[in-house]
UniProtKB/TrEMBL annotation, chain A:
Boundaries of every Origin recognition complex subunit 5 C-terminal domain copy: 317-440
GO biological process, one term: DNA replication initiation
Protein name: Origin recognition complex subunit 5
Orc1-like AAA ATPase domain sequence ranges: 46-169
Keywords associated with the record: ATP-binding, DNA replication, Nucleotide-binding, Nucleus
Quaternary structure, from the entry: Component of ORC, a complex composed of at least 6 subunits: ORC1, ORC2, ORC3, ORC4, ORC5 and ORC6. ORC is regulated in a cell-cycle dependent manner. It is sequentially assembled at the exit from anaphase of mitosis and disassembled as cells enter S phase.
From TrEMBL, chain B:
Protein name: Origin recognition complex subunit 3
The keyword DNA-binding belongs to this UniProt entry's keyword annotation: yes
Phylogenetic placement of the source organism: Eukaryota, Metazoa, Chordata, Craniata, Vertebrata
Domain Origin recognition complex subunit 3 N-terminal span(s) in chain numbering: 42-301
Main location class: nucleus
Acyltransferase is among the record's keywords: no
GO MF annotation, one: DNA replication origin binding
Quaternary organization: Component of ORC, a complex composed of at least 6 subunits: ORC1, ORC2, ORC3, ORC4, ORC5 and ORC6. ORC is regulated in a cell-cycle dependent manner. It is sequentially assembled at the exit from anaphase of mitosis and disassembled as cells enter S phase.
Gene Ontology CC entries for this record: DNA replication preinitiation complex; nuclear origin of replication recognition complex; nuclear pre-replicative complex
Keyword annotations of the record: DNA replication, DNA-binding, Nucleus, Phosphoprotein
Subcellular location: Nucleus
GO biological process: DNA replication initiation
Family, per entry: Belongs to the ORC3 family.
Domain annotation Origin recognition complex subunit 3 winged helix C-terminal: ranges: 519-631
């Protein structure tokens, strides 16, 4: 049987495939209805296209389709996850050992270069010439960009280099344009895996997991309800599947108790909807672990609200550390010019009208924290703290422990001894919480208020912007 | 902790003067006592959270194969262990956690430190080393295998191969000791890689978090944190921890060594203001003990009662004389009869006898709650507002303590009487409170008129002040009784005779030693070299610069007079002037010129030492100038 498939205008490949029925069964089984295109690039008999680039969002079935085809057709292939390849040597090693066995891979020198790999590959492939195309599948190929810059262009035309029937398949979540090197390179064949549509594929795919003791129709309606809640925030098939499994027992509860029948969809919906909303805020964000979530369902006590992760935002800090952090915050977000006004008792008169320059008015919060030298931090610290503090070693060591806790961050090199610079990396809310429990002296509160009053308006703007951006991201 | 103290002891004991030589063994024993006391107590405190962690790992280690769906989601079980910001204490917690897990759950425990894992490669290497190295040491035959693996690859898949050869389906626990310090990219990659192998390799992560659990969300994006199944475990809060150490060591009558209130203030201050570290607190305690046994020869009497009596009998003449010079003893002598005074001051034997007597008395004083004297006022305030059941409970506790000590029987009697009366009152007071409830219930209905409401409220207020309920009356009686009791028996420790034997009170020394100020000591050394060198010729008045001082000191003092930028030539000139002031006035200019190059060299060396100490640095603004790095310029 011959199938003609048109491929994005590049070329038409005639696929000779004897066991197509087996494929279609497989394809349906693996829930990948519109993924048939990929097969056309997989041509076992002739020299195939040197490189294929497949992209699409997370959990759209890229690796699954490719690997299933490889397994099903029993094609020789090497599958490598680029995250694992901390050096290009590991990649070479995995490829060689998949094609020619571990003995061949052991021949690689200690820190193999690309030419070592090509030489060894040539040598090995001449000993055992390819009867059919060999495939190198590189998952998470976006990591390749951080590796040696010559690696990607070389792999794209590996067929030429090693003179063997080999195809490199790159799988990525990023479009090809972000990969293309400046100097240009061989253009791979591009495939796009589009997102699953809500109506058809997602419901269909998710419905395959249906519970044996309930009818598939019931499960499908459950999936519809679930998608109604989660589809706006999450299209990751894997996540949705996870959530579907987690919440199904709750959905079935009225059925088991005999309070509702399978046909009472509305009743069931009313029961599950608030539960799913809660799940979106907790278990989906991993604020609550899935095990805890299940446990809560089993205990069936709505009153015992689980303590979510972000609820423990409060950090207990030593007394001086709190003041150091407040001082760091003030130093980071106030212009150094204003220190004299804020922290000196006799600062002289500064006219209010042009006290702040125009660019300073724009908001320090939108610009982010600015670096400040250690001297300035200590000067503000001494003026903020209410008692006399000796410059002891432990005060200085607290600064470095704040850096390790990542509440402060050091700018520049770690080994800089002369005049290290820091940035404050905590939020306004955090500082306010700290200063509330530390502030016995009114002056500090005033200070904070003074320096924050300019910023508060901007913070509000910034927050709304932030939520807007995060919403956009979710869509 | 204990090792550090042991090490610090070596130079100390060797430098101890001859008089103290005898007491070395006693001090050693005491100190070991502290180590032995505290270690298990700290272990005990963390035991609860560690046990629940072990339980968590056991559960997930077993449930791994049965939980089919979770494997599909590739979630790695993860425990977020909240430890608080007292980083010095963490090491011990992790050590005991490792031991516990290895003993009871799984031999495959790896703990990694952020410092060693700057890249994923290093992290994986660390994990492999710790896991497979252990395997080799157990089984000789595997050595060839692992050698081969290590030679070829350092990947998790290699670990998978190894895990299959081990054939024990136990989880592999990876402990990230300082989660915050890890590079987030390294963590993300590691979690991604591990999640690929969850089917073959049951990983369990433990994150040691110092700040708050939200640190996880700050470090890891959703795509990675969705691979984890996180549960939070809280360890004991630091203040609770300290309180239990206090109970064990300071408020313990078994333990003759005591701290004066000022010393306690210093130690607690360091704890609260600086580090929250219980371990450092215990170290401070050990240090003060060493210091006490070293500096106070009479500390030989500071031991258990029997030993103290023994050693008191054999006191040498010199030591008896020392006792006579103790301020507290002198105060005691003054309060005695004149004849007794004479005897005390002349007869050694008599002193010894009185000493024995006082030792007993003193020990009995210590047995009571010393801490209360300091916090007495606040405690009374608290008692005044205590609810009834709490008060009864507190009184019961007091009675129990008194029963165990077998002194002050009459006080015990009175206390029990009070408890009885309070309990009898129970019925009455409950009725009373219900009456109050009715009043407030009525008021709810009258809320329509604001003015009237105000009036009734005022009325109610006045009624409350007028009529004290019987419970309140009784409570004030109890408080008065306790107050008188405390005033009678708990006199401040400083007023007790012979308190110097058991109490360590030099808080200044302690502060100087534990809360060091490197900058001020450098400044002291440079501006007053006599302080450290103890050379008579270096004694100078405050403002002047002595030419006899080391070059560095002269250069330092001269630089204090300069602004932010210092002209090197002017500095040199001033240096030469100071140097030449020491020489004879009538030396001619030729000789001066001869020594010039030598002085020049000395000056340059001193300047480079200044740079090394961080007072100045070279600047690009002006080539022949250096910049001051310390304050005080301009």
């Amino acid at each position: 049987m011959k199938i003609h498939i048109c491929l994005t205008g590049i070329k038409t490949i005639i696929l000779d495939c004897n066991n197509i029925s087996q494929y279609s069964v497989f394809l349906i089984n693996s829930a990948l209805m519109n993924r048939r295109d990929i097969m056309s690039a997989v041509n076992p008999d002739q020299y195939s296209y040197p490189s294929v680039f497949i992209y699409g969002h997370r959990a759209t079935g890229k690796s699954h389709v490719v690997l299933s085809i490889m397994k099903d057709l029993e094609l020789p292939h090497a599958s490598v996850d680029c995250v694992e390849c901390v050096s290009s040597g590991l990649l070479f090693h995995q490829v060689l050992s998949a094609f020619f066995g571990p003995d061949a891979a052991a021949l690689l020198p200690r820190c193999p270069s690309l030419s070592d790999f090509v030489r060894l590959y040539k040598q090995m492939s001449s000993n055992s010439p390819a009867t059919q195309t060999r495939y190198i599948i590189l998952d998470r190929a976006e990591r390749m960009r951080d590796m040696d810059f010559s690696l990607l262009p070389a792999l794209l035309r590996l067929q030429e280099l090693v003179n063997d029937n080999v195809t490199v398949i790159l799988l990525s979540e990023i479009v090809w344009e972000k990969f293309r090197p400046n100097t240009g390179c061989f253009e791979p064949l591009l495939f796009h895996f589009p997102d699953y549509s809500k109506g058809k594929s997602l419901v269909q795919i998710l419905s395959w997991d249906h519970h044996p003791s309930y009818t598939p129709e019931l499960y499908a309606s459950y999936i519809n309800i679930l998608l109604g809640v989660f589809f706006s925030v999450c299209r990751d098939l894997r996540e949705l599947r996870h959530l579907a499994v987690l919440n199904f027992s709750k959905f079935c509860e009225p059925l088991e108790k005999g309070e509702a029948k399978e046909s009472d969809i509305h009743k069931l919906w009313k029961n599950i909807e608030p539960h799913l909303q809660r799940a979106m805020q907790t278990v989906y964000l991993r604020e609550v672990s899935s095990v805890q979530w299940e446990q809560q369902q089993m205990d069936e006590k709505e009153a015992t609200t689980l303590r979510v992760l972000s609820a423990h935002a409060h950090i207990e800090l030593p007394y001086y550390s709190k003041f150091l952090l407040i001082a760091a915050y003030l130093a980071s977000f106030n212009p150094a010019r204003t220190d004299r006004r804020f922290f000196l008792k006799s600062h002289g008169k500064i006219r209010k009208t042009n006290f702040l320059k125009k660019h300073e008015k724009t908001s320090n919060h939108l610009l982010g924290p600015k670096p400040f030298p250690l001297d300035r931090l200590m000067a503000i610290f001494y003026s903020v703290v209410d008692s006399r503090v000796a410059p002891t070693a432990s005060v200085f060591s607290q600064i470095s422990s704040l850096v390790t806790l990542q509440l402060l961050s050091q700018v520049g090199h770690d080994d800089q001894l002369d005049s290290p610079k820091y940035k404050c990396s905590v939020s306004l809310d955090f500082i306010l919480a700290i200063s509330r429990c530390v502030c016995v002296c009114v002056r500090l509160l005033d200070l904070l208020a003074l320096s924050l009053v300019i910023q508060s308006q901007v913070v509000r703007q910034e927050r709304s912007l932030f939520t807007a951006v995060s919403n956009l991201h979710l869509l | 902790m204990f090792n550090a103290a042991e090490m610090s002891e070596i130079p100390l004991t060797s430098s101890v003067s001859k008089g103290c030589f005898v007491f070395k063994s006693a001090s050693k024993k005491r100190k070991r006592h502290v180590g032995v006391e505290v270690l298990p107590s700290l272990h005990q405190l963390n035991k609860k959270v560690l046990d629940s962690l072990a339980e968590f790992i056991k559960k997930h280690g077993l449930g791994c194969s049965s939980d089919n769906w979770r494997q599909r989601a590739r979630e790695t079980p993860t425990a977020a262990l909240m430890l608080g910001v007292n980083v010095p204490d963490h090491a011990m917690t992790f050590r005991s956690l490792c031991n516990l897990l290895q003993d009871s759950v799984t031999p495959f425990v790896v703990s990694v430190h952020a410092k060693e894992c700057a890249a994923v490669k290093l992290l994986i290497q660390k994990v492999l080393e710790q896991l497979m190295g252990r395997g080799v040491s157990v089984d000789e035959e595997q050595e060839d295998d692992t050698a081969l693996l290590q030679r070829t690859q350092c990947t998790i898949s290699a670990l998978c191969q190894w895990y299959k050869t081990v054939t024990k389906s136990l989880p592999v626990v990876v402990i990230f000791k300082d989660f915050e310090a890890f590079n987030s990219q390294v963590l993300q990659d590691f979690i991604l890689i591990c999640s690929r192998y969850t089917q073959e390799l049951p990983f369990i992560f433990i994150f040691g978090i110092a700040t708050s659990p939200s640190a996880i969300q700050h470090r890891l994006p959703h795509s990675v944190s969705s691979l984890l199944c996180i549960e939070v475990f809280h360890s004991l809060s630091r203040t609770q921890h300290l309180a239990s150490v206090f109970d064990k060591l300071i408020l313990n009558s078994q333990f003759p060594f005591k701290l004066s209130s000022r010393v306690i203030q210093v130690l607690v201050g360091i704890f609260l203001y600086h580090d929250f570290s219980v371990q450092n607190f215990v170290k401070g305690l050990q240090f003060s003990m060493l210091e006490h046994f070293k500096s106070q020869p009479l500390s030989m009497l500071c031991c258990q009662k029997q030993e103290a009596l023994l050693s008191a009998k054999t006191l040498s003449k010199k030591n008896v004389e020392r006792i006579r010079h103790l301020p507290s003893f002198m105060r005691y002598v003054e309060t005695q009869e004149p004849q007794e005074q004479v005897q005390l001051l002349t007869n050694d034997e008599h002193v010894k006898v009185t000493l024995l007597f006082h030792n007993k008395l003193h020990v009995s004083c210590i047995e009571k709650n010393l801490w209360e004297t300091e916090e007495y006022d606040s405690a009374l305030q608290l008692l005044r507002i205590l609810a009834k059941d709490e008060l009864v409970a507190a009184l019961r506790k007091c009675a129990e303590i008194l029963k165990s000590t077998k002194i002050l029987q009459n006080v015990l009697q009175q206390l029990e009487d009070f408890i009885g009366r309070l309990e009898a009152l129970e019925g009455v007071s409950s009725e009373d409170s219900s009456g109050n409830g009715i009043i407030s219930g009525k008021m709810e209905y009258q809320r329509t008129d604001l003015f009237q409401l105000q009036k009734t409220l005022l009325e109610k207020e006045s009624r409350r002040t007028k009529r004290m309920n019987p419970y309140e009356v009784l409570r004030s009686q109890v408080i008065e009784f306790i107050d008188s009791l405390v005033r009678e028996y708990l006199t401040p420790a400083e007023l007790q005779p012979l308190n110097e034997v058991c109490y360590y009170s030099s808080s200044g020394v302690l502060r100087q030693r534990l809360n060091v100020t490197p900058r001020t000591s450098i400044q002291a050394a440079l501006s007053h070299p006599f302080y450290y060198l103890q050379n008579e010729s270096l004694k100078t008045d405050a403002g002047t610069i002595s030419s006899a001082a080391p070059d560095l000191c002269i250069v330092y003092k001269l630089h204090l007079e300069c602004g932010r930028l210092i002209n090197l030539y002017d500095w040199l000139e001033a240096f030469l002037t100071v140097m030449s002031a020491a020489e004879d006035q009538d030396t001619n200019s030729e000789e001066c010129g001869k020594y010039d190059s030598l002085k020049h060299a000395r000056f340059i060396q001193a300047v480079s030492e200044m740079e090394f100490l961080g007072f100045i640095k070279s600047t690009k603004q002006k080539t022949d100038h250096v910049a001051r790095l310390t304050w005080g310029g301009c």
